[in-house]
Specification:
By secondary structure, this protein is an alpha+beta fold. The protein is built from ten helices and twelve strands. Helix 7 crosses helix 9. Bound molecules: adenosine-5'-diphosphate.
């Protein structure tokens, strides 16, 4: 018997006693039974309420779990944009302790440049009563920046009144890096395309000018030669010198223009590729240089060289230009010793041409590969400064590198790489 039933029993007994004869007024009995019905209804309602309370607690726990373990940062703001709650991800994103976030204005964590944008976003959220998205930059606890996409919505209380904002913060720093990478990749591709067009135009231009310039230069050179032949010693010493300068200048310019013409022609043979013995290419270059080799009593040796893929004529030119320089920049007291060797390094061959010549100062290691760059006064050594530029252009076209290591007074070693391409 529960407490309520006991009370009813006691009430009934009391009523019996009141009537004195144990007769209970019918009205009272009805009242008591109504009370009982009412009581059991209340009990049922109570049970329903308890059930509802239980499920409310359950959903509340679920909500807290969702809030705390959401993969996006969640911030609850009051009407004045003061943070009243933040989830675990929000704390991590801002890189600050919870106590340094709660009760602070949300705007404090936004970089100055983005504060107006954020205010506009909040205004729109309030005016439209719809969710709004915008990109914002936050300043984190360690003074680094966080690029985030925020989604804002308004909070309505139980009376239907506006009560603040909920803000979801999504880190898009990685997206931005990927985007920036994609962007720079595209710009690089565009630049390469532009460069290729520019290069082709330049090649065309230098080919035409060098070709067209040769004709008037030939005329100048031959008339300067005629002047020298006819008038040398017939005017005065100065006139002889002037004529000599003109003849020298014209022939030098002729060699430069031919060099430029050859330079602009490099790359024309890229369609003509084959497997060939690098040793054959070397031998061709040596027989082209045979006169000088003999003249300077040069001792040229080589390791066995492999079969490579490319244009044989181009590689012959590279060997020839390097060996020609080794002969040219020899030390006067020794006969030149030149050795050509090769080493395999992963997917490429590294060829080297080593001499015992005058050497090159380290500060000029890069300069000497530039067009028309020379380290000695005109007249000391023959040449116009195009041999290494041509060699570099050839090697680069086939995806290789060329460089020099040297010691002044001891000698130089020029290296160049050629990609190893297996025969199918
Ligand atoms: P050129 O030989 O016509 O001067 P290059 O382009 O072949 O032009 O060489 C550029 C410069 O590099 C040379 O003028 C010379 O100063 C330097 N150089 C090239 N090869 C050697 C070498 N083997 N030893 C010393 N100096 C060299």
């Amino acid at each position: 018997m529960n407490k309520a039933d006991k009370i009813y029993d006691i009430t009934e007994k009391l009523l019996h006693e009141v009537n004195g004869e144990g007769v209970i007024s019918e009205n009272i009995i009805r009242l008591v039974s109504e009370l009982r019905i009412h009581q059991s209804k209340l009990e049922m309602q109570n049970k329903e309420l308890q059930k509802a309370q239980l499920s409310l607690n359950k959903s509340r726990r679920k909500y807290i779990d969702l809030y705390n373990f959401s993969p996006v940062g969640l911030f609850t703001l009051n009407k004045e944009l003061i943070i009243t709650d933040v989830n675990v991800e929000g704390i991590l994103l801002l890189g600050r302790g919870k106590s340094k976030i709660i009760n602070r204005s949300f705007v404090n964590f936004i970089t100055e440049n983005f504060q107006i944008k954020f205010s506009r976003c909040m205004k729109r959220t309030l005016e439209t009563m719809e969710n709004q998205n915008c990109e914002i930059e936050f300043i984190k606890g360690d003074s680094t920046y966080l690029h985030a996409n925020i989604k804002s919505r308004i909070i309505i209380d139980e009376n239907g009144d506006f009560n603040g904002f909920q803000i979801a913060v999504n880190d898009i720093s990685v997206d931005r890096v990927v985007e920036a990478l994609k962007d720079s990749e595209k710009r690089l591709k565009d630049a390469v395309e532009e460069l290729e067009i520019f290069n082709a135009e330049l090649q065309n231009y230098s080919f035409i000018t060098s070709h067209d310039l040769q004709e008037p230069l030939r005329t100048m050179a031959s008339y300067a030669g005629l002047l020298k032949k006819r008038y040398k010693g017939r005017i005065d010493d100065d006139a002889d010198d002037f004529i000599e300068y003109i003849v020298g200048g014209a022939s030098r310019m002729q060699r430069m223009i031919i060099g430029l013409h050859n330079y602009s022609n490099v790359g024309n043979k890229t369609a003509d590729l084959e497997y060939f013995s690098a040793e054959d290419a070397l031998n061709t270059s040596l027989s082209n240089l045979m006169y000088k080799i003999k003249k300077y009593h040069a001792h040229v040796t080589n390791d066995p060289l492999p079969v490579i893929y490319g244009n044989k004529e181009d590689i012959t030119t590279v060997f020839q230009n390097l060996i020609d320089n080794a002969l040219k920049f020899r030390k006067k007291v020794f006969s030149p010793r030149i050795h050509i060797s090769v080493q395999q390094d992963d997917d490429e061959y590294v060829f080297s041409v080593k001499d015992n010549g005058i050497g090159i100062e380290e500060q000029y290691y890069g300069k000497i590969f530039e067009i028309f760059k020379r380290l000695h006064p005109i007249g000391k050594y023959q040449g116009v400064g195009i041999g290494l530029a041509i060699a570099k252009r050839i090697i680069n076209i086939y995806g290789g590198y060329i460089w020099v290591e040297s010691k002044v007074g001891v000698g130089s070693t020029f290296y160049f790489t050629v990609k190893i391409t297996e025969k199918q």
